[in-house]
Fold this sequence. Notes:
Blueprint: H1 3-24, H2 30-35, H3 42-53, H4 56-69, H5 74-98, H6 103-110, H7 114-146, H8 151-201, H9 206-209, H10 222-232, H11 245-260, H12 263-266, H13 275-293, H14 296-311, H15 327-334, E1 338-340, E2 363-367, E3 373-375, E4 386-388, H16 393-400, H17 405-443, H18 449-472, H19 478-491, H20 493-502, H21 508-530, H22 553-569, H23 576-585
Antiparallel strand pairs: 1-4, 2-3
Helix pairs in contact: 1-8, 1-17, 3-8, 3-13, 4-7, 4-14, 4-17, 4-19, 5-11, 5-13, 6-7, 7-8, 7-17, 7-18, 7-19, 7-21, 8-17, 8-18, 10-14, 11-19, 11-22, 14-16, 16-17, 17-18, 19-21, 19-22, 20-21, 21-22
Amino acid sequence: MSTQFLTYIVVGLSFALYIGIAIWSRAGSTKDFYVAGGGVSPIANGMATAADWMSAASFISMAGIIAFAGYDGSVYLMGWTGGYVLLALLLAPYLRKFGQFTVPDFIGERYYSKLARVVAVICLIAISFTYIAGQMRGVGVVFSHFLNIPIMMGVFVGMAIVFFYAVLGGMKGITYTQVAQYCVLIFAYMVPAIFISILITGNPIPQLGLGSTVADGSGMTVLQKLDTTLVDLGFNPYTLGSKSMIDVFAITLALMVGTAGLPHVIVRFFTVPKVSDARKSAGYALVFIALLYTTAPAVGAFARINFIDTVNGSTYAETEENGGTPQFVKTFENIGLIAWTDKNDDGVIQYAAGSPFAGKPRFDNERGVHGERVVLNELSASANEIHVDRDIMVLANPEIAKLPGWVIALVAAGGIAAALSTAAGLLLVISASISHDLLKKTFMPQISEKGELLAARASAIFAIAVAGYLGINPPGFVAQVVALAFGLAAASLFPAILMGIFFKAMNREGAIAGMLSGLAFTVGYIVYFKSPWFGATNSAEFWLFGISPEGIGSIGMLINFVVAIAVSRVTAPTPDNVQDLVDDIRIPTGAGVAHAH
Length: 597
């Protein structure tokens, strides 16, 4: 049975499972649609939270970043993991005790203002659409490779699947679908990692394999071999960072506090019956997340070793069976995720430090002398001849290591599960913020529950269409796009939520001014350096304080805090009833059933 056929079977069965769950658990009320009826068990919610949290960035892109960035890639591990701990301990139980449906619900009630609610919705939509662009890009990459279709068509297929179970099932359908998706994605991530760890080091535990001796007789550990090999090819050592300390700190901080402000993760804690269950589900989710996050550094290191060993110095025209270039290079080349140009016309791929092209490679349909796809970009002066999209490394890893076809098919299903689970959660918070916070709580308070549910589904359809466009035209690779979303969350929602719980004196004027100023600064900085409209050079010498766009959310957060506190000092104080509300949220009643205000 061919790998392609196996992939169709495994992916098809996983889709049938997700759609079956959506039909079984379809939402019949707004409470089902928004918070799954509030009756999800802590273990199930922990799995669903982990699936919601571990997006295409975690499954597909994070190990790819670590593979190529080495030590610099650790900011994603530290920021995302630390951020989840921050969310679980600092915010989740208090928000669950407050007992509302959405993050804008909390901000609107806590800051006694419809305008604050609307501003929170604007922040939420900006964060969610930026985040979802990365997920749909991930869906397109996975589908295009494993189903042998263009990336654009892959995005359309992903949109159709998400449309079905997100629009039909709401949070209830998404929750139980995400439980299944977690099981699929973690199995799909761990199985090839264990196989490859055994092949490279003889150690079946990837986390330990990373520090083990390579089974090639060299006597070097995995990291020693990587350092030596990369230095020989002109790269920096794998274990030596090139980012400035301030940028490492800023990115890590932005990812941490951005995590604690992510609306699609926060809303998961509204789906359990009690405050104590919110704490338990946070603990379970951390265990489930740690399985993948502690494995990712090993997966990245193994992928880089295998890539260099199989690609560098290989003869492109020869088949893989004759010791030539691996088939995965030619497969990804056909969909534009790998590009090779033969600068010295010897038919051999040279992998070295530096970019092979002056810009992003553009393909022609013609073939070169050695069978390679013709690239229409100006060549750079470096010795490097191959461009590799970071998002392919986890997907290509089983093929590079020549693992069985069923493992390759499993990774396809896992990558799709990771991207779709997060995309569905994001679409739900977008639709809930439009139907519940803008319509029901702000502009159309008389709307019926049936009308609100219809509006939620209609806004989900709109959100899917926008997400598809962003997936086809993303502003970067998956983890990079997701990092920008975390920066927006750090600069806008996190300070308002944190001060709403722990700072009674924060009033509506301060919160609104803080959110708008933090969001405006961060969006402006990202657009200036990341969009093609301004022609700004995205180089460290032009960054404010040497902080990259991925880390600028930390400065946006500081601006938010400073502006909010300053404005609150010169405006009317917080009403007594709201101060009493804050005191009530913070009373540690433990397992008592949360009550809505």
